[in-house]
Amino acid sequence: MRSPAPRGRWRSRPGGGSRRVDPGRTGGSGLPDPEPGTRAYSRGVVAPAHPEIAVPRPAFLFDLDGTLVDSVYQHVIAWQEALEDCGVPLSVWRIHRRIGMSGGLFLDALQRETGRRLDPATLERLSTLHAEHYLRRAGGVVPLPGARELVQLLHAEGMPFAVATSGSAVTADSALALLDLPPRTVVVTRDLVERAKPDPHLFLAAATLLGVDPRDSFVVGDSVWDLLAAQRAGALGVGLLSGGYGRAELQAAGAYRVYADPAEMLDRLEEVGVRPAR
Q1: Alpha carbon 115 to chain centroid distance?
Q2: CA-to-CA distance for 69 and 47, rounded, in angstroms?
Q3: What is the pLDDT of residue 27?
Q4: Which of 27, 107, 177, 231 measures 20 to 30 Å from 216, CA to CA?
Q5: Every domain of the chain and the residues it spans
Q6: Domain at 72-139: CATH code
């Protein structure tokens, strides 16, 4: 007479053989209980309860004018005065729409919009005059609300950050001095790269100097040119309204989040992955 089969069910094992599953250890699911330190899911999938995942801390790549310092309109007026000096009248609003892109592209757009072709000597003179007119107004430039506090907090938390601006070192130096940046802060100006925004070179150079992957970075800027460059660099874009562009414009250019100014961004840093100290 055949002896009764043992209680439980038999499961085949990979490579042959079988094992018995005790219903008392399956929780009614027909699957064996998970080993200590693991968690069982449906269909027999077993995963570590707390898998070790290496997540890099985000880096922040900041524009300068209109993002950290309130200088957009000084640049606009400086360009208008430089153009008038060269006999090229242009409305302020048209100039503002181009602030943030590289000077070369700005001058290309200028010629297209005015229908005038300017010789190389005039183009060079325009750039020089713009710098001169801007520096005369630089005394009125101030940090935007929360800008100093934002970079100080990132530094205190050990979060990598850099400044990448389409401006030259000549016009950027006085603005940078307002921010009380920590020593050895990475700064990339137009003079240091082949092309400026909306090309990604400035942000790619800043990420390289920080030793971070741009895909693990946030680009923070106030213009559509910043955000287009962020997309091309593979970074997430954060838009600020402090440069004069609208929320819808910044979002259409790829902004993941839009804040009024650095102060609001500082107040909501958890939205970009910076956890407050507990």
Answers
A1: 35
A2: 49
A3: 52
A4: 177
A5: 59-70+142-272, 72-139
A6: 1.10.150.240
Q: How many residues does the chain have?
A: 278
Q: Residue 233 and residue 231: Cα distance in Å, rounded?
A: 5
Burial class of 47 by CB neighbour count within 10 A (0 to 12, 13 to 18, 19+): exposed
Query: How many alpha carbons fall within 13 Å on the CB side of residue 234?
Result: 8
Kind plus residue range of the DSSP H or E element containing 240: strand 236-240
pLDDT tens digits for range 132-175? 999 999 999 999 999 999 999 999 999 999 999 998 899 999 99
pLDDT of residue 11: 46
Phi, psi of 12 (to 5 degrees): -70, 150
Range in 26-35, 101-110, 164-173, 268-277 the model is least confident about: 26-35
51 — phi, psi (to 5°)?
-65, 145
CA 233/CA 110 separation, integer angstroms: 26
Equal fold, 59-70+142-272 vs 72-139 = no
Give me the sign of the Cα torsion angle 93, 99, 102, 103. positive
What is the pLDDT confidence band of residue 12, given thresholds at 50, 70 and 90? very low
